[in-house]
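Task card 7
Instruction: Convert sequence to structure tokens.
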Amino acid sequence: MFETKSGVLLIAGIGFFFLAFLSNGLVAWLMYAHLPEKTVEQMIQEQVDNPNRSQNVMTYFRDLQARYPEAFKKHYGEPTQEKCAEALRVGRKIYIGEGCWHCHSQFVRPVSNEEKRWGPVSSSVEYQNELQRPVMFGTRRVGPDLIREGGRHTNDWHIVHFFRPRLTSPQSVMPDYPWFFEKKMDITMGDGTRYVGPGDPNRRGIAIITYMQFLSSWLDTYPLYTSRDAPFAEGEQR
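Output:
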């Protein structure tokens, strides 16, 4: 067997498999095994304590409270760090339960043009926290990679996108998620056109949007966002 071409190729294939396992799995584990897995509360606190940050997940959480005060108070009370952590855990479960990971990955791969399309290539240390277990590498990429989604759009954009994706992304094949909202609203435009709009987000809606704004919030700056896409920082004039 070992003297034939097919035998050599078989052994080589097995060898390359174990080499890939060692380089991509075992080595990465050895690099970060000594680091404790961060809790949601720790990640939020690190962002709040970083004086160089103009935006973080708490900015977007407070923005939801300001925009939808009644719904927010009903489902989460006050926009504290503890309530933000609660919303993130709920949002993560919804993301998994709704099967979002089937069409969206959460890993910018080190291959051609990935960094230009989605932002900085993902690093292993980014996944050493509670909200990345299990890691959402994704199986397909029907929609964009979401690991750099935080801060790229406003909360209002996400409201419309979850309610009816084609209003923000005309070519989207993403389904509507009307169950993320309290009730629908009939809206009449100046020309008499009528359409159904999203009501206030419910507990699930607030949670999934907070989770979206969390993704990449651990970086020092949000990648690829413009000032019109991000909410105003505290104290900044509108």
